[in-house]
Write a structure and sequence with these properties.
Helix content: 25-40%
Number of helices: 10
Shape: globular
Mean pLDDT: 95
Number of domains: 3
CATH class of the largest domain: Alpha Beta
Strand content: 15-25%
Low-confidence stretches: none
Largest sheet: 5 strands, antiparallel
Bound molecules: adenosine monophosphate
CATH superfamily of the largest domain: ATP-grasp fold, B domain
Distance between the termini: 7 Å
Structural class: alpha/beta
Order of helices and strands: HEHEHEHEHHEEHEEEEHEEHH
């Protein structure tokens, strides 16, 4: 807030890390007349040069350089507001993010639930969401997914149906089970619901739905069953848009409302801006949430030309990057930036 007080409100710039959803974020900011800054790892600057959406490209040797005094002061001189996304959170971590001096759009306190499965689960439970049941190894009596901490894209996860099978896999692969999570495997379709909570309007908006295109889990079905004896990995290659059956919207919106309500109680001032519930819908139309992201997700990129639900809401094409920009613009006009940054 101290840094923000010194900012020139007529010359705010929008900055983000060059990855994830940076094209969407900076493209929208530029369209709305903001100066844009992208911080990229050496080599990746070509992307942002190609799309002409960055007024300033800062090349870093590694992302943690963002924590250097020199880079932070440069951002402050540019009156920069940082837009966090998945790469920002995963490269800097909660501890790194706490050290960032320029204002960040969103609530940095709540980012920690993305880095702590236990905290995340408690939060989702408090929001009254249906979660996949967690089991102890001895309790495995149905198809279960065994997850390891820090597995990027679920690499190394495996499926088992019994305690015997579990013990065998652990022994065979000499795995450390001290921090594993075992969940009932939900057979259903993956759906990722994106929302936006506007602290200025005090309203939740529903943005859209996507699913991930993952290797090799999305390729196993393309080979005969007798060759399918491989551990699924869930490394994301891209995203695919989904339009939801309209009757499902009622529950999906209620889930979002509950998350916003609990976030205000648990991490005041609560969620600011975009968030996503990562779910599986089973054959009985039960919606299970297995993860939450409390910032823009890359799945919003599938609607870079505008979300279908936002077309209904705003009567024009608006993507998530633009929705963030609209909120910042309005906050500047109404002198309420402190409501949407931390
Ligand atoms: P995660 O690391 O929790 O994001 O999980 C990686 C992937 O595993 C997800 O994209 C889901 O497709 C899948 N997955 C995670 N948990 C479950 C579950 N309980 N049942 C079925 N699939 C799951």
């Amino acid at each position: 807030m101290k840094v923000l007080k010194e900012y020139d409100m007529d010359n705010i710039s929008i900055a983000t890390i060059g990855s994830h959803s940076a094209l969407q974020i900076l493209g929208a900011a530029k369209k709305h007349g903001f100066k844009t800054i992208v911080l990229c790892k050496r080599g990746y600057e070509t992307i942002y040069r190609k799309f002409k959406i960055a007024d300033r490209i800062i090349v870093l040797e590694n992302y943690r350089e963002m924590l250097n005094e020199k880079i932070q002061n440069l951002l402050i001189r540019e009156n920069a507001i940082i837009i966090p996304h998945g790469s920002f959170i995963s490269y800097l971590g909660y501890e790194g993010i706490k050290k960032i001096k320029p204002p960040i759009f969103g609530n940095r306190e709540i980012f920690k639930i993305e880095m702590d499965r236990k905290l995340e689960r408690e939060f989702l439970n408090k929001a009254g969401l249906r979660l996949p049941k967690e089991l102890e190894p001895e309790e495995i009596n149905t198809l279960c997914i065994v997850k390891f901490p820090g597995a990027k894209g679920g690499k190394g996860y495996f499926l088992v149906k019994s305690y015997e099978e579990f013990k065998q896999k652990i022994k065979e692969q000499k795995l450390d089970i001290s921090k594993i999570t075992i969940q009932k495997y939900i057979i259903g379709v993956n759906v990722y619901f994106s929302y936006f909570y506007s602290p200025l309007q005090e309203e939740l908006e529903f943005y859209g739905v996507d699913r991930r295109y993952e290797t090799n889990v999305d390729s196993i079905g393309r080979i005969p069953a007798r060759y399918q004896d491989v551990n699924p990995s869930y490394v994301v290659v891209g995203n695919i848009p989904i339009l939801l059956r309209e009757s499902l919207l009622k529950e999906v919106i209620e889930m979002g409302e509950n998350v916003v309500k609990i976030s205000k109680e648990e991490f005041p001032p609560g969620i600011i801006g975009p968030f996503c519930l990562e779910c599986i819908i089973d054959e009985d139309m039960n919606i299970y949430t297995f993860e939450i992201s409390v910032r823009i997700v890359a799945g919003t990129n599938v609607f870079i030309t505008g979300s279908p639900y936002y077309y209904v809401l705003f009567g024009r094409n608006v993507n998530m990057g633009e929705r963030i920009t609209m909120e910042i613009k309005q906050a500047i006009e109404k002198n309420k930036l402190e409501r949407i940054i931390t």
